[in-house]
Amino acid sequence: MQKNYYKTLGVIQDSEDIVIKAVYRALAQRYHPDKWTGDPVEATRRMSEINEAYEVLSDQIKRKQYDQSRISNEYDESEEDFNNTETENRFGNSLDDDWCEIVKYFPNLDKIVEDLSKISKPLAQTYKVYLLENKEFAKRGTIALQFERRFLEKYFGTDDEIILFAKFLIRLALRNAAKDLNRAVNLLGSDVPSTAIISKVLRDYPEIEKIYKPAYYKKNSFKNAPQVSSITAREWMGIGIGSFLLLIIFLGYSAS
Predict the structure, then answer these.
(1) Which of 102, 98, 82 has the alpha carbon at shortest distance from 90?
(2) What percent of the chain has pLDDT over 90?
(3) What global pTM score does this model have?
């Protein structure tokens, strides 16, 4: 089985070079013999894995070849980490301390990271390092949405309703349903209406349907709002014009 070097570093596949380098420095610091307080054998093993991963991912040619060898649109919750103990939850003193300081200025970052972690822990970690390295804190909310969207599109396509449904399933750790949705999207492509795919998954998991519908319509309430027909709009326009003419007549009469 091919090693997952991104998983070793605790980041997502789309991570920028600056993120890969920052994570490597932090992990190397964490497992340094002078700072590691745990089992030295474990530190040596982890550092060996980290060095191997970084050797590939820090080289553009090797990374491209590696990525091409593992291209897959198949969603695997173990890869994207619902509760993966091997994924780094902390990078080391340097990045962790910096992040704690940043949160003092932007308290909502904790909530943003918590939400991203429900989608994927590596996604949340990558987001943290990206912000620390690029200093784009003013755009933290927008960047989080971009990260989340890009991650979900990798497995579930670009349809908004499918993306919303996938996010719902993953955040509640409904693993089997998420994998079925992923398989359906890969199998059927974009020609099949999203409602048909979602309905099929809900029929297969009736217990999910009971809790999904309220959340769905709440987030999409604008789609259910009654629309003004073209006839009604014209009627309102006629009323508006009539009122305007009456106002002109009244003002002319008053002036005389």
Answers:
(1) 98
(2) 54
(3) 0.74
